[in-house]
Each structure stands twice: as C-alpha cells, then as structure tokens.
Amino acid sequence: TTVLRSAEPILDQVVGILNRFCQINIKVVGHSDVVGTNQQQVLQSKLQAQSVVAYLWSRGVPLDRMTFIG
Q1: pLDDT at 53 exceeding the cut of 80
Q2: What is d(CA 66, CA 54) in angstroms, rounded to the nearest whole number?
Q3: Could you give the CA distance from residue 20 to residue 40 in angstroms, rounded to a whole number?
Q4: Residues 6+ apart with CB under 8 A from 13
Q5: Lowest-pLDDT range, 35-39, 49-53, 55-59?
Q6: Mean pLDDT for all residues in the chain
Q7: How far apart are CA 3 and CA 26, in angstroms?
Q8: Residue 27: CB partners within 8 Å, gap ≥ 6?
Q9: How confident is the model over 51-55, as a mean pLDDT?
C-alpha cells in the first residue's frame, strides 16, 4: 500500500506541524472497507497505517514519535 498523491499535501502539512511542535507524538490509525475477511481487512488497515508512517518518516519525522494500528 502506498500513500495517494492526493494525500501528500495534507501529510506534508502534518510534517510541518510535527517539526514545529517536537513534543507531539502521533498515532496513525488505518481503516479498511468491508471487502474481504476480517483478517484481510485488519491486514489492509495496518498496511495503510504503515504507509503513512513511512511517508512521514521519509520527510524527517522520527519513528519514535509515531505509533500505528490497523
């Protein structure tokens, strides 16, 4: 799963906020549609959340300031 290009400007704003306020930690929560089994939906939502964390990390947000769940 990758971050949609249309989401990048919003995530870049999040990066800016996190860079200005270094005491903020975030939790990224992935969501899924109702397609597939429950197990597939949980996996998909985790992959989505991981993609967002990877994007933010690639823009300089330290991993220790982020957690994620699906």
Answers
A1: yes
A2: 10
A3: 37
A4: none
A5: 35-39
A6: 92
A7: 17
A8: 66, 67, 68, 69
A9: 96
What does the alpha-carbon distance between residue 12 and residue 59 come to, in Å, rounded to a whole number? Answer: 8
For the CA atoms of the chain, what is the radius of gyration?
13
- As a three-state string, the secondary structure of the chain is CCCCHHHHHHHHHHHHHHHHCCCCCEEEECCCCCCCCHHHHHHHHHHHHHHHHHHHHHCCCCHHHEEEEC
Q: Which two tokens stand for residue 29?
A: 């929560």
HSE-CB of 25 using CA atoms within 13 angstroms:
7
- Give the model confidence (pLDDT) of 15-37 as tens digits: 999 999 999 999 999 887 777 78
